[in-house]
Amino acid sequence: MAAPSAFGEAGEARARRPRRDREVNRTKLLAAAREVFRDHGLKATLDDVARHAGLGVGTAYRHFPNKQALIDELVDDMFARVEEATREGVEDSDAWRGLTASLEHVAELQALDRGLREVVLHSDRAVPAGLRHREQIRRNVDLVVERAKEQGVLRADVEPWDLAVIQQMLAAVTERSGQPDLWRRYLRLLLDGLRAGPERTEPLPGRDYGKRLDVPGANWMGPPSPSTDVPAPPHG
Amino acid sequence: MAAPSAFGEAGEARARRPRRDREVNRTKLLAAAREVFRDHGLKATLDDVARHAGLGVGTAYRHFPNKQALIDELVDDMFARVEEATREGVEDSDAWRGLTASLEHVAELQALDRGLREVVLHSDRAVPAGLRHREQIRRNVDLVVERAKEQGVLRADVEPWDLAVIQQMLAAVTERSGQPDLWRRYLRLLLDGLRAGPERTEPLPGRDYGKRLDVPGANWMGPPSPSTDVPAPPHG
DNA sequence: TTTAAGCGGAGACGCAATCTCCGTTTCGTG
DNA sequence: CACGAAACGGAGATTGCGTCTCCGCTTAAA
Hints:
2 copies of one chain form a homodimer.
Chain A: H1 20-40, H2 46-52, H3 57-63, H4 67-91, H5 95-112, H6 114-121, H7 131-150, H8 160-177, H9 183-194
Helix pairs in contact in A: 1-2, 4-5, 4-7, 5-6, 5-7, 5-8, 5-9, 6-8, 8-9
Chain A binds a DNA duplex through helix 1, helix 2 and helix 3.
């Protein structure tokens, strides 16, 4: 107990200034992870990330307790960009243009980032990290949908979570085709279907699911119930 | 060479009638595999299949050289049903109704069978087995699309392979949502977008891909080039 | 110079799936 | 019924792969 070892001389150990390379390497790792996960998806190994950063795996594990922790930090960024994209949609006074731009912009983000795509497709992963932004994303989407209906440009039987499902479909197109722009073709098709028009008489199926459908894949645009406080996913 | 061992006495070994349980078990295995892959996807283990059949793994491996061989046999069945579904579409004189029914029926098959869904989503797997049916499926789809355009009910800038991509999107909806019927909602949306209508002025993006787009995921409805004779995929 | 913070990366570890091996059981036959 | 070949069962050998640890070496700060 009283041994004057590495811990502290007597009361306070005078803290040595942290080495500069520490933060430099941390930044390198984050940048590398961003690129590697963007290009190869979230199942790239931490060895890949470290090598791409010009560092050893050991270093990676000194900076992040495990792979998931690293991912979490990036996912947060990703969702921030999604949030921004949906906000742009809200700010447009032409609700249809806003809705379109919103869908397009989010789809663009996805198409360019395989990691984000995987998060969107398997939204379970997003639970821990994206959480901070999801509530705002949901609000933005709700707003755009609501206003588009008010302006009479969006068919009335569309629900906000439909947009989440649509993003999943577009993600699937990119994922499977490898064509980074092919999704635009099907978004056009879907938009033509979404647009309010007198010639459409049959309502969409599935309104029996209710307003807030608990579709596992659709919840990344906002948690289904406001009081769910992160039910501790497996995580690692 | 001349050793009178287990092979045959002199000229012909009198063949003993094969044991009855052999074929019975083979059938059991196929049935079990169908169910297991339908419910749990193609990555279920052969141990799972064998147990579900009430047999040991060893037996499974005596009947099928490896897991892929077993899958191949089933995939062939699956594609046969897809072929049938598309044929129904062709036989309807109302091309729009045929097109709709075709899409619906194939989507239904997918929604009920996770194995098929995986084959459709990752069409690479289908290369060895579905091959026999794919050419006919392609012909059926081409025909329905062509006739629907002739009848003026389908927008002119739609290509046959669009339907393959659409199936992938629907598969993704089922896969991620877990809702076995949710795809109907988005098929409706897409059909509204596919329908020819005077109010649509902008053509679909992506016509620059040409008539026979080499979209990896879209080729399960028919090989891109007729002369490609199975480029020997990894397979195992 | 000294010293501890930080690095590198080989390899231990864990896990999961495929497939083999051989003792045991079952079926067909005389 | 008795016999032998055919078929079975399932423990575990094998393989593959990704995560994370450990410790000798390097380097920044004092």
